[in-house]
Amino acid sequence: MENSPLQLLTVPTAPYPDQRPGTSGLRKKVYVFQSRRNYLHNFIQSIFSSIDLRDRQGSTMVVGGDGRFFNRTAIEVIVQMAAANGVGRMIIGHHGILSTPAISCLIRKYKAIGGIVLTASHNPGGPDGDFGIKFNTANGGPAKEAVTSKIFQISRTIEEFAICPGLRVDLTTLGKQMFDLENKFKPFTVEIVDSVESYANLLRNIFDFAALKELLSGENHIKIRIDAMHGVAGPYVRKIMCEELGCPVNSAINCVPLEDFGGQHPDPNLMYATDLVDSMRDGQYDFGAAFDGDGDRNMILGKRGFFVTPSDSVAVIADNIFCIPYFQHTGVRGFARSMPTSAALDRVAKATKIELYETPTGWKFFGNLMDAGMLSLCGEESFGTGGDHIREKDGLWAVLAWLSILATRKQSVEDIVKDHWLKYGRNYFTRYDYENVDIDAACEMMEDLEIMIADKSFVKQRFAVEDKIYQVEKADNFEYTDPVDSTISRNQGLRIIFSDGSRIIYRLSGTGSDGATVRIYIDSYEKEQIFEDTQVMLAPLATIALKISQLHHRMGRSGPSVIT
């Protein structure tokens, strides 16, 4: 406890016009936060001001991040401002480190009014990289649009912020730190908690750790390779997978969180998780997985690098959901996927007579369904999978779900997926990302596309590529009415649906820090030809997608930045 009460200040400031949070919060280059006066302070104050003062007073909040550059600097400012804005207690991860799933877990455990997540997810880190700030509400999930819109409106008119500049927190020591503040009856409390323990305890109550330990370190154990990509998942992998479940320490790589992720792009896909992909090729490992910067995304690989698409991953988990003890106890209330995700999950939902929800991209839409008791399992094609145990996607949960299936079925990853295709047919799926394109050109292209597909004559149009003919059955701009509160989300992506069920989807993505990203998603169902190459099978639809949009010509690109 400090000897004399710490002074609270109100500091004049001027607004910035560009602090609109995207689907994953506010993401900018680090230099924006460093070089623009009070840029960080303005946005943090806008978050606090969006919460009613009566709710803020004496409340608990959680803060932590993925360990990227600027993480600790931001935490110090957030704590100083929380104290000055009436928050009574801050829960912070040791050294400021908390995975996004762990933050969701802690918000729910401590009944906090919310949490501030410091991450730019799978975007690069370091002084020249990205930084992000996301506000999660009391359910542990990302703030809904009404809240993020309110934060943005406040940020556009902000005139001052409150701060306690003399407050200094020691992030290295576990336990409580108390601070007397002027004009406050109760001390302000900061609690530094073990980054892993509460979250690990949650997982112990979901999975059969004894069965997983036998699978990973018993007499006939499988060999696995886990790549944390120098993100926040490293400490969780070491504690849960290695110490608790008995994986050899050398089976977990890149497990030390680094401010620049070792100069790598912490994105768990075939292009960026090259350490893992390369090490899986020779067949010495039966199972491989990688996580992104903040630990909420995952990639699953089988022996010799057999790739499980995220769309197939959530469908396979759904079909084997009772391999997870948690769902044996709770039952299954519903499945959901984001609209661009392949329809593989739909086929499992139909066969099992479980309700299927198709939502816009963004985990907050799943959270609303979970809060209403309507949803148990969900996934996105962007390497996100999760259950209703928290309100965020959860990389490690997905890995333990897969290992639970392996432990029960005693088959390889590849055999499990191929059996799934034999049972349900296969949804071939790919995504083309065109990153850092000119935002005006991208918006113009999307507007022209929408005008084209909205024309009545577009429906029933036929497109021929080689010996394939595709006829348009439906075309629209996806709109979602939330079945819980009837809120409507418009302009969620342009869809062209063909008579055979194949789909082409165009979206402008909002998770980058500069420029725009145009994404094209292609999804095509096959009942018979299920063991073919994805890009070969989808080549005709890709040709049609590029022809309709004229994307290469309009964006000045010869091809996509990333194909997944």
TrEMBL record:
Q: Which GO terms describe its biological process?
A: carbohydrate metabolic process
Q: Which PROSITE patterns match?
A: PGM_PMM
Q: Name one Pfam family in it.
A: PGM_PMM_I
Keyword Transmembrane among record annotations: no
- InterPro entries in UniProt: A-D-PHexomutase_a/b/a-I, A-D-PHexomutase_a/b/a-I/II/III, A-D-PHexomutase_a/b/a-II, A-D-PHexomutase_a/b/a-III, A-D-PHexomutase_C_sf, A-D-PHexomutase_CS, Alpha-D-phosphohexomutase_SF, PGM
Q: What is its main location?
A: cytoplasm
Query: In which domain of life is the source organism classified?
Result: Eukaryota
Q: Which residues form the Alpha-D-phosphohexomutase alpha/beta/alpha domain?
A: 19-160, 198-305, 328-424
What name goes with this protein? Phosphoglucomutase 1
